[in-house]
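ok so heres the complex, two chains, lmk if somethin looks off
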Amino acid sequence: MTTIQLPSPGAMPDTIEARPASDNYLTHTRGILSWIFTLDHKRIGVMYMWSVLGSFLLGGTFALLLRTELLTPGPTITESADTYNQWFTLHGAIMVFLVIIPSIPAALGNIILPIMLGAKDVAFPRLNLFSYYLWVTGAVLCVVSLAMGGFDTGWTFYTPYSTTTTAGGVIPVLTAAFVLGFSSIFTGLNFIVTVHKLRPPGMTWFRMPLFLWAIYATAIIQVLATPVLGITLLLLIVERTVNIGIFNPSMGGDPVLYQHFFWFYSHPAVYIMILPAMGIISEIIAINSHRAIFGYRLIAFSSIAIAFFSFIVWGHHMFTSGQSALMNTLFSAISFSVAIPSAVKVFNWIATLYKGSVSLTTPMWYALAFLFLFTIGGLTGLHLATLSTDVHLHDTYFVVAHFHYVMMGSALIGMIGGLHHWWPKIFGRMYDERLGTIACWIIFIGFNVTFFTQFMLGSQGMPRRYYDYQPEFQIYHVISTIGSYIMAVGFTLTAISLFGSFFNGKKAPANPWGGRSLEWQCASPPPFDNFAKAPRVGDCYDFSVVHWDPKLGGYRVDESNDPEVNPAAQGTKAAH
Amino acid sequence: MAIKTANFIDPFDSAQERGVAGVFGMWVFIAVVAMIFVACILGYVVVRFDQPPGREWMPEGTPGLPSALLLSSAVLLISSWTMQLAVRAARLGQQMQLVYAMGATLGLALLFLAVQALAWNELWTRHATIESGLYAWTFYVLTGVHALHVIGGLPPMVYVFRRSREGQYTPTDYNGVVLCAMYWHALDVIWMVLYATLWICSALT
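and the predicted structre for the whole thing:
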């Protein structure tokens, strides 16, 4: 096909050059109040992003404290096992409720989703800002809880311990999780309505970028599962304050009921964390392979299938809780079936790479890391879904390693990959690719050193959450701790490469990676209203019309040969 | 609004599109509320029928469900009817009827809460307190959570009431009334299910 030099109708250049590049959403209005009361989805997303990254730093610090404490059996840096209990509880609660759950949907999703849809904003901008302030309230309550004596219940708040522990900060942190839950619900509600009602003409469901499918499936889980957490935490607060006995067997209640309630939310919550990351990976892999995503519909449907399965597998967290053998068998069988849609995604990503012309950009390295780590995390899940092996592995470091491979190695790596993928779009600056890639490798190595060791540790019987351990386990703990330090170095380098872009980063082109979806057709950073006029929607995975343009220093979408856009040109598309 | 939000960009092209999205958003919100009560009711049923051996759900002398609940159910049903009258009046552009119907609904909502308080008082004075165990406390929690949702519905209802007094709703733009009515009917349906569950679970001894 020939490249036509004429500016194509309605394509990227005339939306970008219509306005001065200096007028973007970051510079459109000034002053702190213009941020605090902003209704712009991009600014709200950026505020979420800084808040989440700040919480990540805090949660990561607790992780390093934990690992340092475990360097030697017995006391290492704290004499008190209670302090250790508080550290791991804080690490878990911060990472789950303040970091991973809001990281992709609320931070990246807020910034990218409306632009990807070609919309001016989310459906309910005020509700969106309200969600953010609910998040802030939740974060403040976590701090209040710390000031009131902290909490040592583990992030799961299992009864009867959570109703009887003397730690003073339990009720504030329960309230925090309750409030954060509603922040998540309102974000999900907003996204569902946005995807349904603000798709531009031409973007049918099966023309949506897969990131949108993933966020949509996530939003369904957020909306249907989180209310259950809300009522559970409310009951727990009531139980702890007036002791009504609903979770207390001596008063006719049932502590296992709490576990059912809790996991009815918290298992779907696992998919709130992983599904958006899967969406990011679909985008990164397709764009950096410069090749149409393999099995588009299967990937889209597998997101919905995972969302569906997420609601009926919660019992696999409770194989040793005394639920009936029949329930155990059913939950075990259904848990295995989650492997099917997950594997469908992995195979489709690999098939996309095959014969693609892969650009090894930093986001692509993160996507490849995701493929490895998610595969390990997913396959070790099968050991835990198997009843007989789970009885041995339950509450050991094997479980810790498994969910870190999925929650951190997949969800968080996907989030960091997405951050690199959209960073030029969000801030209009390119980061140091070489440093970014090196940082990715260091994180990948550090991650495996930390957590692969924990698989071995767990399979030999080291229980999770213990302050002290037998000397025979020490070598594994030492290796694992060294790995966590390597990761800390990697994340520091990531931060340097990203923040460095503000000082010496090249100006980012509108389309640095060769994407076709709508966010790459608007300037970097986007103007305050995203699109002056509604953009035209093409096939977002047809990369045959995306060409490198040395003058722009980025890619350019030239649709003039696309018969769908220009009826005069015929048949050139079919050649691809 | 007190604070000028200079950078507000309406994502919708027309008030009609915004209205359609609002109704859809309310359906999603009703799903959220419904999930809260599904969890509540299921939890209640499990605890009710999963009592440890030798433990009575309602030991001798436990008071039955307060009779005031019959009255409050009737009040809530009527308020749903007046709410629907308000929607009809708004659609037909009958400003006075809209104001009356909204006012009546608001009054009935407050009356419902008052009768619920009577029901609580009735049970409490007949010593359905902490000693009588889960029977009383699940009752307080379930009706309490529902009452909280009713209270949560009051500010939007007052807002719609005031706007209808100002004559802000026209036959082409009365979305606020519709959203209010959707939420109100949902709470009504939820209450009926809740009451039926409580009634059945207390009758089966």
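quick notes: Chain A touches chain B through 54 residues (CB under 8 Å). thats all i got rn
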